[in-house]
Each structure stands twice: as structure tokens, then as C-alpha cells.
From TrEMBL:
InterPro entries: PBP_domain, Phosphate_ABC_transporter. This is PBP domain-containing protein. SUPFAM superfamilies: Periplasmic binding protein-like II. Keywords: Signal. Residues 39-309 form the PBP domain. Signal peptide: none annotated.
Amino acid sequence: MNSTSYTISYVNHKIILLTIALSALIISGLTACQKTPTNTSTSGLATIVCDASFENIMNQEIDVFEYTTKGKANIIPYYASEKACVDSLLDLKTKTIVISRDLTQKEKDYLESQKKHPRSNMIAVDAIALIVNNDNPIEILSISEIRDILTGKITKWSDIEPTKLGDIQVVFDDEGSSTVKYMRDSIMKGEPFGQNVFAQQSSREVFDQVQMRKGAIGIIGVSWISADMRTRDMSRDERIKSLQEQDTTVADFDPAVKVLKVRRDDQLRAYKPYQAYIYDGTYPLFRSMYMITTGVNGSLSHGFYSFVTGTIGQKIIQRTGILPARVQPRMVYLE
């Protein structure tokens, strides 16, 4: 991957950790100035550091949670690489993180040695979607074709099927994201990225690049391209009320881009990343999503953790198009 993007990612990592540390000091100072404790499970200030791939999901969780506390709680999110998330937790700069894996035993032991008792919960299974421009005639890619595109063995769309599109440009969200790590570890088997792979600064930029460039293919979390038409134009009050409904079906994907079907090399049928196909494992590109906290019972950090892992928090996750850990999917539209 482009070396410039690596440098930018490293600098951003340091800036994010410094910013989180500064915020922690400010929050501590504000708490110390209070005559009576105000940090409860539904009030006060708390930070969370979340893998940038999950920004769209966590913003919605925070929005609804703060609303339910009537403005008494303020969750301050930071979106960073997975490494920055874990470092901020181990350095005691935040009490809550969201990443694509559980803590290792070594990381848990270190926190215990600091008298911090981490709790972790798998809150969702996220799919990684492959998106292309709507003018791209390609509909399906196999796992081996994806691997060859990422490693630079396939560099032109015509190497897959007849087309005049030309060169393939692969676009990721960020050099240090869990999306990059997943594709490197699970699909590429440790091989290096080709010269046709580029990192942006956000998932939104990946989406925009694919819209603008006919030869681009974006690697992106499925929540960024899910289109829940029923809630898109709702007010916050209406959105909160809709979460009380039993129907939590996600209809389809954003029509501004094309979502490719993916098939395993030993199978003929290909699938799009719908929740039902994530649930039964037929869609092959998926990863877990973990929420980890060292917040004690009664703290705002623990209160938010309980909210996200609870019924309403899980319904919010389902509305984003990924698979919640505790709500079974029900589909009304499938190809």
C-alpha cells in the first residue's frame, strides 16, 4: 500500500492518542470541580475509542443513548485504527473501545495488573462489502479473484471479463483499519498489497471515490452502504419510536453504488452481504465486532456498554445492515 498513507496513518495514530489523553484530563478536571458526583450510568461525561470502520454504527448508538438520558449523558467518540483503540485502553486514556476482536490474554492480564477489570462482549458480526461504480458491468467476484486484485496479479477489469473499463483501483478506508487487517490476514494470507491499492481517510471517502471513478473498487463495512428507507428521513423522535417496533428488517443497499456478489472458490453461487447470508455464513467476508470496557458498575461507561449490548442497542445495529449478536435477522427482500 502507498507509503505516504502509512506515514499519515502513523501521525494520525499519535495525534488521536494525544487528543484522547487531553480529553481524559479535561473530564477528570470537570468531575473534580463538582461538589457532588454526577457520573452515573445515565449522566456525566465519558469517552469511547472506536475502530473507524464502525463509525456509522457507533454514531447512531451514541445519538439514541444520549437522547434517552434527556441530555444528561455525553459520550465523546474518537474514531481511530484498531491499534490506537487498544493502546488507548491499555494506557488508561479511555475506558471503552470498539474493535474487531477480543482482547488477548496478555492484554487482559496487563489491565488486571493495573487494577482494571475489562468486560468484553461481541455486539455484532460485520460484513465487508465490495462496491463498484454503477457503470461497472462486473457483478460477481470469487475469493481468488479478490486476492489477485489486492496483490496486483489482476490489474485490469478486462482480466476478469470483457470490458473497456481499464485499470482497477482498489480503495480502502485507512491504512491501519481493521478492514485492511482483515483482508490482509484472511484473504491475502500475508502477501503484500499491489501498487493499485490506495488508502483514504474515511469510509465516506471510499464511497465517494467509487461514485466518481468507474474503475474503482471500494472495500468497506456494510453499514456504510445499507439503506434503511423507512428511517432515513425520520426525525430523532420518530427514529426512537421506530425502535420499539418488532420489524427490524433492513431493505436493501444504497443505489448510488453497486454492491458485488462474492463466492467462495469451491462454490458456484455468489451472495451479497445481506443479514441472512451473514447469519448463516454463506457470505464469506465477515468479522466480529467487540465492545470492551473497564468501566465499573454504575459509571457512564458501563451504562453505555449495557445499552449497546441490550435490546435497543442491538436493534440499532440491525438497522445499520450488519448482524447484531442478540437479534435473529428476518428478511423480506433477498436476491
